[in-house]
Specification:
By secondary structure, the protein is of the alpha+beta class. The chain contains four helices and five strands; from the N terminus they run αβααββαββ. Strand 2 and strand 3 (104-111) form a beta hairpin.
Length: 181
């Protein structure tokens, strides 16, 4: 892991510990989050899915939030797909964050590539390149933001057995790069 990714992961961990120490009742207000940095090496996707499982187990065990199997599978799938895209299309590290916001898990992946991903039109004969279609199908919302360095991709998954609601559209302004992925 490069120094910048290590520093960011350490800052996030320090922030979490500091906030928890200063405000022990914050979990009662529903704020729960976890993050980790990945270099794009073999095994990172599996480690990110394990982090998602640990986060969801924490929601159930420590905070009493029921997480149906459908929701747990959707969260792990979204983490896997978004981190896979970051690892494939970025030469630097990626940071995966999970946060409970109301009855939703917000999954955020930050990477250093400024190119915005483009969901391709459905084509059952195409082999591969269906990751964004899958993410958009299982998520309540999906957005991509350009950041000063790279981009932030965010998807939300509902923690109930209810079917998926409306899916947000990926913003794509004229001149935004990235091409088709």
């Amino acid at each position: 892991m490069n120094k910048a990714a290590q520093d960011e992961a350490a800052q996030n961990d320090d922030r979490f510990q500091d906030e928890a120490a200063q405000n022990d009742d914050r979990f009662q207000d529903g704020l729960v989050w976890m993050s980790a940095a990945y270099e794009g090496v073999p095994g990172d996707i599996a480690r990110a899915r394990e982090m998602a499982r640990a986060f969801l187990a924490r929601l159930e065990e420590d905070h009493g939030h029921r997480v149906p199997d459908r929701a747990a599978q959707a969260v792990q799938l979204v983490v896997s797909e978004l981190l896979t895209n970051a690892c494939k299309h970025t030469s630097g590290p990626a940071v995966v964050g999970l946060e409970l916001i109301g009855g939703l898990v917000e999954i955020t992946v930050r990477d250093s590539d400024p190119g915005l991903p483009v969901a391709r039109a459905a084509d059952p004969s195409r082999v591969g390149q269906h990751g964004l279609e899958i993410v958009m199908a299982v998520s309540q919302d999906f957005e991509v933001y350009r950041e000063p360095v790279g981009k932030r991709t965010t998807a939300t998954v509902r923690l109930t057995d209810e079917p998926r609601g409306s899916v947000g559209r990926m913003p794509r302004a004229e001149g935004d790069g990235g091409g088709e992925r």
